[in-house]
Sequence to fold (734 residues):
Amino acid sequence: MSLYAEIVMTRPGRLLWGGLLLLFMISVLTWGQAGPRQVNPCARCHAEGSSQPATNMAHALESVETASVLIDNPLLTATYGRFSYRIERQGDQSIYSVSDGVTTETMPIRWAMGASSAMGQTYILEKNGELYESRMSWFKELKGIGPTLGGSNSLPTSLHDAAGRLMSRDDKLRCFGCHATNAAIRKELTLERMTPGVQCGHCHEAIEEHLTAMARGSGKPAVPVALSKLQGLSAEQASNFCGRCHRTWAEIALQGNPGIGNIRFQPYRLTGSKCYDPDDARISCVACHNPHREASEQPVNYDAKCQACHGGGKVAARACPVSRTKCVTCHMPRIELPGGHYKFSDHRIRIVKPGEPYPG
Amino acid sequence: MLKSLFVLAVSVAAAGYAQSPQELLQDAIQKQRSGDLEGAATEYRQLLKEHPEATPIHSNLGAALAGLGRFEEAISEYKIALKQSPGLVEARLNLALCYYKMGRIDDATKELERVHSASPENRQAGLLLGDCYMRLGREKDVIEILEPEKQKYPDDLAIAYLLGTALIREKRVEEGQVLVDRILRNGDSAEAHLMLGTAKMGAQDFAGARDEFAKGIALNPDLPEVHVLYAKALMLTGDSDLSEKEFKAELRLDPYNFDANLQLGAMAKQDQNYEEAKKYFRRAAETRPGDPGVRYQLALLAVDEGSLEPAREALEGLVKESPQFLEAHVTLALVYYRLKRPEDSRREREIVQKLTAEAQAKQPGVKQSDNKLQ
Fold:
């Protein structure tokens, strides 16, 4: 049960806890809702808690009130087929509308999926109590809006279809489950309790008990099992853990679509690398990416990771005859995802041959 | 069932059983009637120890076992009964029903053809045979078997549905349409919604199908298979929660429904409720022993529980039997990785890629290797 739930349920006994605990709980509850300027309670003891709130993952979901793309671009327009689109700022809200020249469908934006600072974001609209995924998304490269990835394969046939796609219950569980924290408890959608973005508690599942124990000042930091388990993950376990949102090899393989669209799914791609070894932590997701910091875009920053094996650290890993620096520029080429307006680093590490087909 | 019990009672009485077996038999029949199928089966088996020649007892035992979902055992009993008395139509029909419930449509068809030939007036056999032909894609045979039935039972919506569908599939659209219209004109019937929902599922209009099935359930919640169809449509439209409830609703009507047990097992496994999952899978496996889908789910369960060697063995068996079974290859690749057999894993992964590429190439309008790297 989340801390938030305990307060909402207003059990008098619980509210009689010491002042320190109450203050601590309030800071936990408010942090994440109002952006990175708030103090992350985890940061009091863990340095990672200071850097993580600045990452794109921490902003994987933004409320309409805080989405800086919408604030900085008070009017966004585009046409697609016979439909014209507008996203207009009104106070701290944004209104999404689509028109076929005769009729206009208008829906308020509730959330932006994807950080304002990342490659793009798709909007979650609300109408008559239902949520819709917007047909138009914002792309950093375009500095404007264009067809949402996946929705660009076919032109909309009706005004309703042009506005967006109705989100089913399972869609909501999947989308909010990855882009927010505490959006679902088991199979129950709990949007009213969620904190936007990937916060500490998204990966460290038993964080609340730990925080409560710390707030009680018992002197003994009760680290729950689920919290400590992450430290010892093997490459495969890390792939599966991160792959819960970034997609595992098995998930994509079962979909049976080896096309270029899977370039986005890094754990899937990584598993296809010749150097992938499920037991070798040097090839796990977290060997190269510290989830508490934004991923570096400087190729040189990854050289040490490659050299950990190819610099003599692993018998089977030969040294590159061409270079020992900027390895990723050749072996993990950046590939444009059609319709994605972004070049993804291909995590299928390999000797790339010009003109070869995309290895699915 | 009642008829077979009556036949049994008469034949046993005629056989001149002593008091004790007679009492035992009456007790078994009573138990079977009151739903204590396990108790009835035990007593029938006791009786058969001393009277293995008693054909009706084999038949009754078959019915009790079928009611318990132990179809393989039931089939054995029906076969003994039919060997002793080949003309026992009721036992043959029950045998066909066992095959039908196990998804062994070919075997069910063979038995039903014999029943229909021996008793053409048996409406249930004719209808079931038509359904089997439909499942086997033998529309011409559906028409041949059900056209006379339609004359005899013009108001039977099930016959109209099967025959109408077969006629439309055979391009005899106008004739088929007449029957379909008859169902639709027959007021707002559950059968009509079931038919429309099935057609919409076929056209991949899952939301439309879901709405039709919901209407069908509102009119007749006891219509066979309607909850399973609704549950499948719900899954495809992204409401797995309600879907689970509907699969469970089907099991309340038919505890041995294969699809419902298989899907609920997969759902329970996903929720890491392994004991519950095993319960459903066991029941699905009882209904269709050896079914590759159930064996695959059981292998997945073993993987989740960390029993990698049994999982590997099961998966290797599956891919040997069905080399095109993509999911089994995917899981086997993962299992090999975990068993620290990277070369075997790579081989499986290559098979997965090959199968996927082959499947894609068969799709209309797909260009080969159009993603060239610069």
Notes: Confidence is low (pLDDT under 50) at residues 1-37 of chain A. Residues 135 and 151 of chain A are 6 Å apart (CA to CA). The interface with chain B takes residues 167-171, 186-187, 236, 249-250, 253-254, 256-260, 272, 277-279, 333, 335, 352-358, 360 of chain A (CB under 8 Å).
